[in-house]
Each structure stands twice: as C-alpha cells, then as structure tokens.
C-alpha cells in the first residue's frame, strides 16, 4: 500500500524545504521528494541554491575578498603583509564544509518537524483527490505516494547556448565554475548578469584575467541607471573587461583551452582565447520528467508552470513555487512563496508583495534594489522625486575603508510614498532591508528621514538619501 500524505512537496531547494517545514508546522502530514546527489555521490537536500548556487558562491566571494583585502587594502590601515598566496584546495574545502553544514541543517529541520524525506525524483502520475506521485529512487526503485495537496518546487537549471557543449571542465555553467581546481590564467564569461559578474569577481580577485561578453547593449539593464553607471565604472576599474552588444559566433574547445569567435558592437569579428569559459546566460524552469502521461498541467509560453497570484496551477490542489514559475528567480522569493502556499492550504489569508522583493548582486561593492527604478516610473508616467547620498563622506564607511557607492531613493512626487530604493555599497545586501520594510508598510521618505539612525553607522546614508529628496541633507 502506498504512503498517504496531506502535502507532498516535489523539490527540496529553498522554496521546497521551507514549504515542507511550514506545512508540517501547520499540522499537515508532509513529505518532500528530493534526489539531488553531491559530487561525493551522496544524497543532499537544498537544491541548486545550497549545493551549487547561492551558498557556495558566497563562500568563494568572501574568501576571494579576504585575499584581495590582505594583498591590496591593508597597507592603508598601517598593516604590512608580504608573501600572500592562495591555497585554492583549502578555499574549496571551506566552501564544501559550509555547504554540508547547511544541507545537513535541512535534514535536522525535517526530523524536527516530522517531514518525511522521500529520496528520489517525483512525477505526478495522476491528478485528483488524492493526487498520485511516483518517486523514482536509486537503482531504478520506484514507489507511489498519494497526497491531497502537491507543491511543485523543482527550481531551474542553467540555460546553455545551442552548439556549445558544457562539460563543466573547460566550458562550465555555474556548477563547474564553482569547482575549479586551479585559478585560470585567462577566463572568459558569456553573460554579464548576476552569475557572470559574481563568478567573474571571484576569479579576478584570485588572479584571473577576466573578459565578459554580453549580448545586450546596456549594462545591468534591470538596475536603476545611476546604479548601473556607477557599477560599470567600479567593475571596469577593478579589472573586469566587459564587452557589450556582442554576438557569439562560434565556441571551439582546443587542447590549450577555448576559442570564442564573436562579433563586437561595431560589427567587427573578434576572437577571445581563454583557459576556461563560463556560460551564464540565464536559467530555465526545471520540468523534465515532472508530469506523467494524461496529466494536463499547464505551462506558459516560456516553459514555466502557469500559476495564478496565489501559486495555484490549473490542477486542483496542485501549487507551484520558486524558479519553476513566473517572477524573479530568487531564493528568498521561492521561500516566501512556500510559506504563502502552505498557509493558503491551511485556510489562512496569506499574501506576498512581489513589488518589494529585493534583488541583490554580491559583487564588491554589492548592488541591491527593491521596488521601481526611476526610469520605470518615468515610463509609467509616474511623477517622482529622488534623493541620493554617497558613502564617501560617511564616518563609518571611512573608518572601514568601504566608501564606494551611494543610496538612491525614488518617491512619488505627490504622496512621498517610497517607490524604490537602490544601493551600491559593500553592505548593500543588508542595507536594502530598510527600503523593503518601508515599502511593505507603504511608508514615505519622510518616515525614513524622521527615524533616528545610530551614529556612526552605514544606515545614516539611507536617512541622508531620504533627506535629500527635500534637499535638506544634513551632512552634505
């Protein structure tokens, strides 16, 4: 007899495992299906984010920042250091230790909340009440379970270019790019998005000569124009060679590395020779093997599972969350959708404001924003005022030596309601939360301006940017 559950979650990435934990907290008999295996051929929870995405990349970003700081930035503090070198094997081992701690932590959460881990890959073979899900485990073993409710949380996978074979040795996506055994002398990257910039930053700091080829004519087109302009200036000064408006013509693997033939923004044929090539041209929803014959789950024209505003699919009692549905491919968006769905199943009136979800790029300096950009407001015919303030004259930033960047706030010209906050700074990922909170509560720039901010802190720059909307900054 097959096991019967109230809720079955397919996928144990950030969205899936959080959905399973919250459903269990709400009293549902819950199972989560996951068959991911790490490089040691061990089953691991956490999906792409914890295993080959957010967590390992941030570990390497931190290690490479430490290396650059010791080699290039401690002298200004009166600290002389010589003979600095990279032990990449130890750096990679630290990364794997962190990943293991995080994935084992999810196992603990499952045990604590009595979530059953069904080890394998899930397929919905019949939809109804109940739904039937087939779990394909190791060695061809299969079992069927039933559930009144199903939450699809299968995430996404790296998009590859036609005709370019990713072997994750010489030509890599995010998985291979996090596992280099040596620092490449010359590194090529196709794509100047979040992954390309973050991984390019890691290997540049560790000694690679990095060239990034981007198809779009504008740099960081999703960011506020002022932020994108500042980021371009900083990153190119650091040594990232970024080519915009590029068309990739041919990629050839050779004994000595990779040759990329491309056409530049002036229509001229160019060549890039590199030891390793990273392909980071976006991600696609992971729906392979998810649906059995006769199950009519609706997908949209881009291959995402079609859902309504509350993550319901066209199938009764089947929901979908995270990267496999519309919206930004962000781990924290997936987590909140997991909570949303679990609480809706429990009959609660849960809500998620997609308009204030923060975006973060973990370069150095970091880039973070939430809400609308100034150009989006203008395109929509919304009259706005903006306030901007630099970190270069902030006491805390001067003390830490992290003075690059600024905060920009966009507010409605008539109501003063904050419509967007945009930050470029070493700690932008933490500072953006004040903007998110303000927007969630439909707050005004005056609310930020009137709140006491500790001194000396970086948060004072957020307040000064709010004051700048009325041209009354106190420290400029």
Automatic annotation (TrEMBL):
GO biological process, one term: 2-oxoglutarate metabolic process
Reactions it catalyzes: N(6)-[(R)-dihydrolipoyl]-L-lysyl-[protein] + NAD(+) = N(6)-[(R)-lipoyl]-L-lysyl-[protein] + NADH + H(+)
SUPFAM superfamilies assigned to the protein according to its UniProt record, in alphabetical order: FAD/NAD(P)-binding domain, FAD/NAD-linked reductases, dimerisation (C-terminal) domain
Listed GO MF terms: dihydrolipoyl dehydrogenase (NADH) activity; flavin adenine dinucleotide binding
Organism, scientific name: Usitatibacter palustris
Additional record remark: The active site is a redox-active disulfide bond.
Location of this chain's protein in the cell: Cytoplasm
Keywords linked to the UniProt accession: Cytoplasm, Disulfide bond, FAD, Flavoprotein, NAD, Nucleotide-binding, Oxidoreductase, Redox-active center
Annotated S-S bridges: 49-54
CC terms in the record's Gene Ontology section: cytoplasm
Active site: 455
Co-factor: note: Binds 1 FAD per subunit.
Family note: Belongs to the class-I pyridine nucleotide-disulfide oxidoreductase family.
EC number of this enzyme: 1.8.1.4
The FAD/NAD(P)-binding domain, residue ranges: 5-338
Residues binding NAD(+), per UniProt: 191-198, 214, 282
Superkingdom as given in the UniProt entry: Bacteria
Cofactors named for this entry: FAD
All copies of domain Pyridine nucleotide-disulphide oxidoreductase dimerisation, residue ranges: 357-466
Main subcellular location: cytoplasm
The gene coding this protein: lpd
Gene3D superfamilies (UniProt xref): 3.30.390.30, FAD/NAD(P)-binding domain
Enzyme class at the top of the EC tree: oxidoreductase
Protein name: Dihydrolipoyl dehydrogenase
Pfam families: Pyr_redox_2, Pyr_redox_dim
